[in-house]
Each structure stands twice: as C-alpha cells, then as structure tokens.
Amino acid sequence: MEKKEKNLQTLQDAFSNFLGIQIVISNEQGEEVTRRSGDSRFVDFLLDQKDLVEERKRIIGQFHNISSPIIYDFQPGIKTFVAPIAVNTSQKYYLWTSFVIDEGTRKFIHQVFEQNDPSKDLKSVIDEVPEVTDEEKNQMLERIGSLCQMIAKHFEADTNDSIHSSSLIQETLKDVATKHLSMTTLLRRVKEKGKLGFIGVAERTKTDYFSIQFFCGPDEVSIENKKFSTGEGFLGEVVALGKGKLWKDVSKDPRVAFFMANGLKPVSIVAYPLIHDDHTIGVLFAGSFEREIKQNEFQSFGEWLAQLVTIHLQKQHLEGKLNQYDLQISTFNDILQLMTTMKDVKRVLFVLVDISINLTNTPFSFVILKPNHGKSQATVISRGLHGDEIQQMGSELAQRYFHSDGQSKQLSPTLIKPSHREDQAFIIPIHYQDEVLGCLAIGAEGFEKWDEISHFLSNLAMATGVIISKNTEEADKTDKVIQSLYLSISQHQPVEFASIQEEQQLLKDFLIWKGYSYNELQPVIDAAKLKSIEETILHEVLTRHPTLGFIHEFKRLQSLEANPELDDAKFREESQFLYLVWSYIKSNRDVKKLDSIRAVQNQWKSEFKMYVSKQDALEVTIELSSSSQEGRKNLIDSIPKDISISKREKEVLNLVIQGYSNKEIASELFISDHTVKNHVTNIFHKLNVTDRAQAIAKVYQHSATNRETLVK
C-alpha cells in the first residue's frame, strides 16, 4: 500500500467510530486500499457468499460518473452508501459503508429473503442491520460527503510536489509537532491546574523497560531516568492491564516505596498506558500529596490527557521518519481522533483554538459558538484577546454570521478588518451543511501565506461542525426522553412532582454556588427529576447516561440511612448533595434535621447548612428593595465614590446582585472565568467583605444610608 493510502487509515477509523458504521475505501478496480473500520455481521455474511471486489467493480461501472455520495440498493430493501473520492481527472477512489434498511421495512425484507434462504442465521444477520429514517439517511450522506472532501483535499495536496519543498505549512506543522509546547510545559500546566503533587511520563526503552523521561514535582525532587518493567509497581501494572487505574490511600501500599525512596509521599496515584498501534509506548502518571484524586477526574480529563501525551510522543518519534507533508496528514488525523473522542464541545473548541494559534504563531485565536435558539449568551474561547476585545469581536462576528440577513451563507474562509482592531483577522466559519454553528477568528498580523494553511484549518473547522451537530442531536434526543419521563411524573404523581420541582431548583442553585459548570451539574439535576422512577426502566431508555449513576447512589444512600450496617462505601459528593436536598425538602426545610443524617459526610452537611442559612438571610434582605434594572443601577450608584469601584466591576457587581454565577457572568460579559474571579475578589476587597451575601448586603446598606441622608 502506498504511503498516502496508509495515511487514510487513521482518518477512516476515526470517522467510522464517530458515525457508528463500517467504512472501507477501494480503488477503481474495487480492491480495498484500506482495511475495514468497524464491524458488520451482514458484510461478514456477504464475504462468505460473494466476491465483493467484483461486486464493487460492477457497481463502479454502473455509477462511474457520480460526483457525490449516493444510496445504492445492494439487495432488495438493503442499502449501502457509495461515495466517490476524486483525486484528479485521472484517479478516483470510492468509499463504501456497511448496510442500512428503511424504517419499518424489516418484516418485508425478511419475507423476500426467506423465499431464497429460510435459514435462521440469515434472519439474525438481517435483524442486526440498523433501520434509518429519511432524515438520518440525508445526514449520513452529508457526513460521508464531508469525509470524502477531506480525503480528496489531502490526496490533491499529496500529489503536488511543490508542497514538499519550502512551503510555510510544513515548517509551522513541524513546530506544532515538536516545539510549540514542550512536554515539560504541558505537564507543568496540568500539575498546576489539577492541583497535583507531581506528574510525569515514562517511555518504553529498547530493552522493553520503561524509563521516566519527563517529570514535574517539588523543586527539590526528580525521578527522571528511573526505570520499571511491565507488571512492576503501580506504573508497571497499567502496562500489563492495558488500561488506566486510580489508587487511593496508597500510603500503606508497599509499591509506594518506588516514590517514597525519592522523597515523594503520595496520597493517591493515577496512571494510564500510552497506546499507539496496539502497543504501549509509555505511561502517564500523577499523584497528590494532600487531596485524593477524584474518580471523575480520573475517567474524563485523565483519558483525554493521555491521548494528548500519546500524540505528543508520536510527533517526536515522527521527526526524521516522515517527510513534512506526511507529518501534516498525521497531525490532522491525530487531532481529529482526539476531537471525536470528546463529549464536551468546549474541549473541542479549546483544541481548535490552541492548534490554530500555535500553527500560525499569530497574536490571537478566538472561537465563538452560535447560541441555541432563543438564547443570547454565546460560548467564547479566546487566546490573546481580553475583556472588551472579546465582547467586540464576538458581537461583530455574531452580526456578520449569526443573524438571518443572508450573510450567514458565507461558508468560505475570508480575511476581514475588525472595526475595533488595527490588524486584520482570518475568519473560518464552523458549519454543518449550510448552517453556520460558530466562527474561528485568527489574528493575521505577521502571517501571509494563508492559502497554504487555510485548507488544514478549514478541515478542522469542518470536523468541529460535524462534532457539534452530532453532539447537539444526541443531547436533544436524550433531553426529550428525560423531559417526557419528568412530565409523566406530573400526571401520575402531582404531589411528588411539586416536591421534585422544589428540590431541583434548590439543588441547581446550590451547585452553581459551589462553582459547578452547566455540564457538571446537569446530570445531577436530571437525577433529581427522575429518581422516583424504577431504575430498570431508566436503564432501558437512558443507556449509559451519567444520571443513572447518581440515581443508583441516591437509592443506596436511602438504604444506608435506614440500615447503616448495609454498606460502608464512599459516594460521590454530587450524590450526597442530591440526598441532602431531598432530605431537606422532605423535612419541610428543617435545617436542624440535617444533623441526624448519617449517610452524608459532615463536610457536605456543613456546607449545605451554611448555604441554606445565607440564602434565607439574603432573601429577607432583597425583599426590601426593588428588583428592577433601574433599581439595581441605583443600588450600584449608591456606593460611595471613595471606594472607587471601576465601570467593569460595577457591571460584575450588578450581575452578582441578580444571582449570576461566575460562569454566567463570564458568558454575559464575554470575559474569562478567571477575569470574573479577579473582579469579584477586587470587589470583596474594596467593600471589605468575604462573600457574595455580605457584598450584596453591603450594597443595600449603602443604599439605605443614602436614603436616610436624603430624608434628613
């Protein structure tokens, strides 16, 4: 297989996993140039019955003039997708998928096939062929078309010898691959953000030992060049297992001696194998000295980081082995693989921003996501822009691309001059089909060869659009199921429903106060809505949904409260909060009764009691004043001038009074969470208070003082 055809495999595998179908690519003679990605029992059945190479060749002969994906009836009622990949005028490839049937036609198809082959095996094979609606078929055609466009563009570039000479695109990609962010810097950032005691990476040596090559920990400690073998200690165990593992309370585990001998005394340790081409090429590990690493950190962020570190190591090993353009293809495929495994759209946007700014080395990179219908708050990720610049750039892009004035059809990259900046910006719409879902803006200062790099970034933006669309579709379907179940409670259990409404609102307010993001709190809120429904029913309709875990733990907490001897397992803090709120509402909001709850840790009970007490006091205070916008403005203006609250701090304080969380303030003002936190800290300092409740009370106090002065 030629080098450029090998590069297709990773891209094909990623899309197969992403779309949930089997994919293979053939040449014009019907011969496979990639191995099949994904599983299909019906394809396996056909391989035993027919020569698929000849079948493909026959179909290509019939449809050699097609220029876009088509649906082909391979057997009566059983369809496949066929798509051309035109490299140039003389060379073409074809993409083939596994099979589908139209919704509601399975019984008819069984009848047709039973006349020729009444075997039970065939019936069971057909039963596994998925049914699709017309809408789903159209979506598949669009997504397969997007994949073919990406492949065709890379094939075109690969056949252009001038690309391999001295073009800037390969030079910048080499920087992305090996220089733009060192492994040490990456690990240091993760250590600081994750509040870890240490973090490191070990690589496989030629002798099949693993040697620690990168380490970030206490300044006086280093374990670089320390070695271990497969199965040896914590780190060797994950190599043998082939999957990540978290160990808690390791102080008495003999294996901790590997770290303690070098001055490290971890409380918990987490490690992941770094796997490439089914081979473990290294180990990512981390540990904490004071706090225990949480299970959700281990499962979500850790797995993502392990993939990123694997990609980084691969790039170091690729240098000198692949020519520069092969490096571009591999980088794109690796990034796409990373993006398609992410369930959080914000993480995908962060990847897009970081890749684009490092690829171009320009002043800023900025992504704005179009708000959902009826919403005014837009998600923004920015590197290099701050404060008012973010607001101005977001507003200008929204006006240009999101408003229904016909301009939203601008789907091609373009160079613009933002009204608030002296330099130009390169704009790449993030779209799916003909709908703009967001925009990527990159500072153009000092970078001239956009023609050479625009297709790479456009492909990433196109992939981002497909991911956003798919995530939105899946979320919408799940949300509809959850809402239907929730409404069914209102019809059959109206009293219970009223109590649940009260619970979920209090739980939401409490989690926002705790600093939870929307993505973190939503599964817990859904658990509050659905916890009265039988778990067996929920597992049928919400397979593997994170809400199920919280509901299960809630019910175990109920059992544990009734009989403390049943279980001594630890529960996630979110499940304990859910149980606390339920107990509180059930007791008619009697705070004193929370002390008698045995199944919840005292720390969480104290925090919840403090929150409830502050909220009760705050409600009494707020009721004394008007809640109108003008009233809030007068409140802010009542602060004495010698306190010197800045204009931006007044905007932040105004939203604090309205009950906005830090994340909601950041979204409303188009600034970062970190900036909001700094503003809030400054406000507290200037008002001489320690929390939001005191700040709001202080503002009302100044307002009351002003009114008394006027009366006198």
Automatic annotation (TrEMBL):
Keywords tagged on the record: DNA-binding, Transcription, Transcription regulation
GO molecular function: DNA binding
Boundaries of every HTH luxR-type domain copy: 638-703
Pfam annotation, one family: PocR
Coiled coil: none
Keyword DNA-binding: yes
Record flagged with keyword Transcription: yes
InterPro entries: GAF-like_dom_sf, PocR_dom, Sig_transdc_resp-reg_C-effctor, Tscrpt_reg_LuxR_C, WH-like_DNA-bd_sf
Highest taxon listed in the record's lineage: Bacteria
SMART domains: HTH_LUXR
GO terms (BP aspect): negative regulation of DNA-templated transcription
Protein name as catalogued: HTH luxR-type domain-containing protein
Source species: Salinibacillus xinjiangensis
